[in-house]
Design brief:
The protein is mostly beta strands. It has strands at residues 26-32, 35-40, 43-48, 53-58, 63-67, 70-74, 82-85, 91-95, 101-107, 110-115, 118-123, 129-130. The chain is globular, with a radius of gyration of 16 Å.
């Protein structure tokens, strides 16, 4: 059973959603617009919770990061760069082509991608690439700590 991130009794819920997977491990994350992104060895796909359907998005994206703009997908094993897929699964942009991206971190409307020994900033609103960034720079993401 997969439920969207709503409080009980507030908003829609899914009582039973069966997804056929190949048996390989996968990760999942909420991307908004009633969709969950799934990614792993078999690529990137979306589950539409409203229609209870599964849609393949990118077979070459074995790693992903859910964002408010859709899912950022990449493959650390191939030099395919980084791509942003909108909530409807369409390719919004591709950047860092010819580079192998090893990790991506989200901070606001930007992702920070490591490609080889270099880091780059990508604006998710328009695909603008900045970098390589200074190698000694540390990205410090803010976090919220609940106060009891």
């Amino acid at each position: 059973m997969i439920l969207p991130p709503y409080a009980p009794g507030v908003g829609p819920s899914v009582t039973d959603l069966q997804v056929r997977l190949s048996g390989h491990p996968f990760s999942a994350g909420w991307i908004g617009h009633n969709r969950i992104a799934l990614w792993g060895q078999d690529g990137l796909g979306y589950i539409n919770l409203r229609t209870q359907t599964v849609h393949p998005v990118a077979s070459d994206a074995t790693s992903a990061l859910p964002t408010p703009y859709g899912a950022v997908g990449w493959n650390p094993e191939n030099a395919t760069g980084l791509a942003l897929y909108g909530a409807d699964g369409t390719l919004r942009f591709r950047t860092l082509g010819g580079r192998s991206v090893s990790s991506v971190q989200l901070l606001g409307p930007y992702v920070y991608a490591r490609a080889g020994r270099r880091r780059f900033s990508v604006d998710l609103r328009n695909g603008r690439l900045t970098g390589p960034l200074a190698s000694g720079a540390a990205l410090i993401a803010p976090s919220l700590v609940p106060i009891p």
